[in-house]
Amino acid sequence: EDKVVQSPLSLVVHEGDTVTLNCSYEVTNFRSLLWYKQEKKAPTFLFMLTSSGIEKKSGRLSSILDKKELFSILNITATQTGDSAVYLCAVGPPIIQGAQKLVFGQGTRLTINP
Amino acid sequence: DGGITQSPKYLFRKEGQNVTLSCEQNLNHDAMYWYRQDPGQGLRLIYYSQIVNDFQKGDIAEGYSVSREKKESFPLTVTSAQKNPTAFYLCASSRRGSNQPQHFGDGTRLSIL
C-alpha cells in the first residue's frame, strides 16, 4: 500500500524562527512530490518536485527532494504569523490519460506565535 | 477570475438521504477529482475523471457516486449507503500534462443531522 508520512504532525514556533517540515514516502510508482498549504479551506499549491537534489524556492519557502532516501523537506525561513497553516505533502505516480492519483500525508499543523 | 467553485459551503444530511455536492471549474481543465478530509488526516481520493463521460473510483468510493456530463462540472452524490459521511469534501482539477498540479476549490463541509 502506498504511504506518505509527514513529521512532525504539529509544530509551534515563534515569529522569525526557521522551520523544517519532513515528508517521507513509500510508493510503488513515483513521478512527483507536491507541497500544499492549507489555511482554512482550499489547499494552495506551493511546489512540485520531480528530480532529486534540485532545490525549488519561492521567497522564504524552499523544498528539496531525495529520491534515493525517499523523502522531501520544506523549509520556511524568517517565519511570519501568516505562515500558520497545515502543510500537506502528496506523492503521485506517472500521469495516465491526463489524471494523477495523489496520495497525501496527514499534514503538519504549523503555528507561528508573534 | 478563473477558479473552482464548490457549493454549498455547509450541508446537513438526514438519515437515509442522498445529497449532492456541486463542483464547477472555469479553468478549462480536463481532469477533476473529489477528495474527503477528516480531522487530523490527509486527503483521500473518492473519484476522479480524466475526461467528459468517464470517471474512475479512487481509494474510498463506496457510498459515493459521480457524473461528468460536462467538462466544467463534476458533482458528487453522497448516498445513504455512506454510513459516516461527516467530513470536509474538496474538489480539484488539473490540466493534462505531467507537470500540472491539482488546484482545489474551497470545500463543502457535510454534517449529519
Account of the protein in words:
The complex is a heterodimer of chains A (114) and B (113). Helices cover 0% and strands 54% of the residues of chain A. Chain A has strands spanning 3-7, 10-14, 19-26, 32-38, 44-49, 56-58, 61-66, 71-76, 85-92, 103-104, 108-113. In chain A, strands 2, 4, 5, 9, 10 and 11 form a 6-stranded mixed β-sheet that branches. Chain A has a 5-stranded antiparallel β-sheet with strand order 1-3-8-7-6, with no helix packed on it. Chain B has strands spanning 4-7, 10-13, 19-25, 31-37, 43-51, 54-57, 64-66, 76-78, 87-94, 103-104, 108-112. Chain B is an all-beta fold. The chains are: A mainly beta (114), B mainly beta (113). Chain A binds chain B through residues 4, 6, 9, 31-32, 34, 36, 41-45, 48, 50, 88, 90, 94-102, 104-107, and chain B through 4, 30-31, 33, 35, 40-45, 48-51, 56, 58, 90, 94, 96-99, 101-107.
List low-confidence stretches of chain A: none
Structural class call of chain A reads mainly beta
Helical coverage of chain A, percent range: under 10%
Most residues in contact: chain pair: A-B, 29 and 30 residues
The mean pLDDT of chain A is 94
Global geometry of chain A:
globular
Strand portion of chain B: over 45%
